[in-house]
């Protein structure tokens, strides 16, 4: 089902793919430009000002911390510096006791990761940056047979991470609200798409696509994970970037809104699973259910759009979805009250949250 357009109209699929990739590239050009300048500046500082002959890790640290997006830049920079420092300490300690052989390298990696797991809590332990840098720094000390290389790496990490922090928190801190809004719109868009897929399943006379529910869960799960990442990024920005602290209250409100958004996505999945189960059991699904799913998909699509027109469309579609949900299924269908309640809840949440995205 998901690959039908690709198979039957490859030219249209390729055009849509190129358009989507172009949109992603345009959105990332400014963060990429910042990363490029930061890497160059880190290299200049480490080479020309500090005097490192081959300061390769300084620009690497800046580029890895900033990457091609605004997400979690400050956090990655802190994790990189702390991981490098811990790994160097562990590598020097193991080198003093066991030397520089293969066994010493294995012991250094083992101890470095164990200590990193013990001391890494909160935002430091988010993702793998802190743990990877700890292990890499310990390996470098043992493999190069000198602690001087580890100390040079730490200085480069401080330079690259410091440049990344200046760029991401002082000079060009991103606006935290669009970060959350974009993720919210993505959840609505993905949920709407899956509801349209569900509608196709309901109207199909053939066998049920057993893989749809798994694929839908994966798609919505990725969108919710991105929303959680966006919330963490927004909280980091308002906490650490002086220019964005005035947005703290708005970010807190948007953060609370994400709970309702997650409830919408969860309800869509439950609605889909119960409906598919009813079809598999041979239950008759009335037209009201199909219409209600269509209405809800339209409401979520409108909520994913930007601008005042999207808000008005979302409100109107959500109102119709709520009304149709009251008579959606007869009692003969298993879990009918649950399905009707979920559709109604989705409609009310969209109606409640759609105008908030533009605040």
Describe this structure in words.
The chain folds into 2 domains: 8-171, no CATH class; 176-358, Methane Monooxygenase Hydroxylase, Chain G, domain 1, CATH 1.20.58. It is an all-alpha fold and 359 residues long. The protein is 79% helix and 0% strand. Residues 1-5, 307-312, 321-336 and 353-359 have low confidence and may be disordered. The two termini are 37 Å apart. The chain contains 13 helices and no strands. α8 (176-203) packs antiparallel against α11 (287-304). The chain is elongated.
Output mean pLDDT.
77
Number of strands: 0
Biggest sheet statistics: none
The low-confidence runs, each spanning 5 or more residues with pLDDT under 50, are 1-5, 307-312, 321-336, 353-359
Q: Supply the CATH architecture of the largest domain.
A: Up-down Bundle
| Amount of beta strand | under 5%
Count of DSSP-assigned helices: 13
Number of structural domains: 2
Helices and strands, in N-to-C order?
HHHHHHHHHHHHH
What sort of overall outline do the alpha carbons produce when their principal axes are compared? Answer: elongated
- How far from one another are the termini? 37 Å
CATH class (first level) name of the largest domain:
Mainly Alpha
Based on CA atoms alone, the radius of gyration comes out at 26 Å
